[in-house]
Amino acid sequence: MSQMQSLMLVVSAVCLHGIGSAEEFCKDYGIQFERVYTVPGDAAALNCTLASPDVFDVHSTPYNISWYEWRSGRELSGGLGRIWDRETMLWFLSSTLEDSGHYECVLRTPNTCFKQVSVLIVNATELGDCNRPYTAAQTLTVIANGYLVCPLLTYMDHVDSYYFEWYKDCEPILEGDKYGFVNKNALLVREVSPSDKGYYTCRMIFNLTGTIGYTAETIDCQIIDKWILRPFVSEPANDTIRTDYGAPFNKTCRVFVPSKGSHRVDVFWATEEEFISLDPSDRVYQLTQSKKKVPDGEWLEVSLNFTVVQEEDFNTNYTCLVFSDKGILSSYFHLRPSDPNLIVPLVLLFTGLALTFLISVAVYRVFKIDIVLWCRSYFPYVYTDPGSDGKIYDAYVVYPRMCLGGSTGSAETFALHTLPHVLERNCGYRLFIFGRDSLPGEAIVDSIQENISKSRRLLLLYTASTFSKPEASLLFEQQVGTHSALVEETLQVILVELEEIRDSSVLPESVLHLKRKQGAVQWWRACAKDTERSLLCPSSRFWKQVRYRMPVKSIPASCLEKNTLLNF
Question: Where is this gene product found (predicted)?
Fold first, then answer.
């Protein structure tokens, strides 16, 4: 395509601007400055650059992109043979001369839309010519090794897989002593010479969702003679260096001179006031210049030495000056005292913190119940007022109305005497016990439902035979309570085993689930270990476990325990 044809494409774009989305008001970003050039048979890709934080918040705003032919307004969506849209790209897998033109991408969000036009130019080529009409200029330097980078990064980032082939003046390049393939898209040229000048074409063969395509770019490689290059300073690097007071110190200025043959380059160290002494007997001095030849140039080195660093040396810029026929170069370092060594104190600090944390976790796990009860006693104001939830009772007691047998006494004795003696009399809790607190003649079902809803906990007392043939009221209490706990999650259940359960299959599924999830307080174990008197003490292990699961009381438990011990 001639320059006149390209100009006509741009002019037609101005005249036809907006056809792709004529019926829709979108913020117009105009025509992209950069054109995409290709040749017939090659793949080409147009990128919609509207999906950018400079346009809208792409990270939190959903959007979609549609492509249109700008002349006809025809939408290009999905896979249309040679033309695909994928993510932000419109792909022409095998371009033709008829594909030249303007294409509009419209990006839509839930609240607005944006549009932009991209231009594709397909140029005809002569048969057998592998070079592309538009080339990218890159330079290499004689003597040194150099790299040519294929400018197809946009394609590399959006295809599934790819590989490259390289040509020089349409002749295939093979990897060997002269050339090397590095970093997937770069060509290494060793020992560059003037004969390496020419046109290099990189051809990319790629896989896009199972379809094979290819595209290429041509690089116009120019060769630069190193005689025109200036020296450069490798060290120092205009940075700050720290050293210890009273210690020796040295720093080398390293300068590379890219040339061959003789040259006139001199290197010196200086401060802001004067040049550094060349006399080794001085406390601060510089050595004479040393040289080291390399194939593509020469390294010059001058060392700056401090026999002993003193206070006056700190906070000073020491500059390496390079004098050559190409001008004067300089680079410096700033000398400052070393920071104090805080590694050992920090290690000790973090080790101490880690040990403290581990010990605290271990102590809390062992004494968790005692710690929680102590906090309730001495810091009651940090807890929510127990009366603010509108409940009347702290716990509703469900117990089997049958004899236990054994030395621990009956379930009725525990529920009607032992439990109220400790929790109500000594700890200040208010319990609802069916048969004791229910009104004569009151409907059983209504009484159970109403009083369970007025309670903050459900104390479920059971034995191995409790659930084998329970009476109707006990079964209803257990069902209402576990339903509130497991389904409605409005009530917490405290399980109290009055005797050892050797076969867990005798327990209902709901009770077994609660036991596995939160455990049970075992009265029978306390009876085997404690005396009869200690069984009624609120500070015994069994009652601490019960009080831990009970709601918080505003009356300090420590005072209640003290009064209890006095009563004994």
Answer: Membrane
